[in-house]
Specification:
CATH topology of the largest domain: Chitinase A, domain 3
Structural class: alpha+beta
Radius of gyration: 22 Å
Number of domains: 2
Helix content: 40-55%
Number of helices: 3
CATH architecture of the largest domain: Roll
CATH superfamily of the largest domain: Transcription elongation factor, GreA/GreB, C-terminal domain
Largest sheet: 5 strands, mixed
Number of strands: 5
Order of helices and strands: HHEEEHEE
Strand order of the largest sheet: 3-2-1-5-4
Strand content: 15-25%
CATH class of the largest domain: Alpha Beta
Shape: elongated
């Protein structure tokens, strides 16, 4: 993952442990105060939410522990690799798009970041500017021209 993705996971873990966990404990205590917990829907809902929070904490901790952080700006060359910012042109529509290839946890197409495991990224890995690739995507087949590769 990129340093940005690592920082986002660290921030999420901090929020989950310092905000969400204490908040759910208070919700459980409040629900428990209503009496018989065997038929208390608020209590059961709060316990389920607590389980979801704890599962996410474990998952984020695991990902942080196994993370391999790669600084895109430290790379060079013209081939597409993890962390590259690529500009592609759809040969059918002429439309150009710019994407950064990032880890799964930090992918956000609205912000111009696609997962390294996405069909487009997988097809472009190892390619150089002026290479053309055909990609099967949910909307059908796209033929893309790799216009530019940079690492910033």
């Amino acid at each position: 993952m990129t340093p940005r993705g690592y920082k986002l996971l660290q921030d999420e873990l901090k929020r989950l442990t310092s905000v969400e966990r204490p908040k759910i404990v208070k919700e459980i205590e409040a629900a428990r105060a209503h009496g018989d917990i065997s038929e208390n829907a608020e209590f059961h809902a709060a316990k389920e939410h607590q389980a979801q929070i704890e599962a996410r904490i474990r998952l984020v901790n695991d990902r942080l522990g196994r993370a391999q952080v790669i600084e895109p700006a430290g790379q060079n060359g013209d081939k597409v690799r993890f962390g590259a910012t690529i500009e592609i042109e759809d040969l059918e529509s002429g439309e150009r798009e710019t994407w950064q290839i990032v880890g799964e946890d930090e992918a956000d197409t609205r912000e111009g970041r696609i997962s390294v495991t996405s069909p487009i990224a997988r097809a472009l890995l190892g390619k150089e500017p002026d290479d053309t690739v055909r990609i099967e995507v949910p909307r059908g087949t796209r033929e893309l021209l790799l216009v530019d590769v940079r690492y910033d």
